[in-house]
Amino acid sequence: MIDKESAYRVANEYLSERYESHMPVTILSEYTIEKNYGWLFFYNTKKYLETKIFRDGLAGNGPLLVEKSNGKVTALGSYTSPEEIIKDFERERGFSSD
């Protein structure tokens, strides 16, 4: 079992490995969602957060799930709203939506 702080670090490391070399990104902590099975972290580029200019942001950056039981990271899609993506994930994995 991991706690929220550890999950945040895991998500941050995951993002750093994928983006830091060409565009620094940051987790948008105020949008983090806690579920009974883990935490969903939303993120965007640091530049977008500074400028709020659309072209400075990421496209296709669905939320990251870090599971409480084992710290596993799953990058969820961006094919529809985050709410629908989360519902689809819960349905596929058999997780409760609580």
TrEMBL record:
Q: Where is the Immunity protein domain?
A: 6-78
Name of the featured protein: Immunity protein 35 domain-containing protein
Species per Swiss-Prot/TrEMBL record: Candidatus Nitronauta litoralis
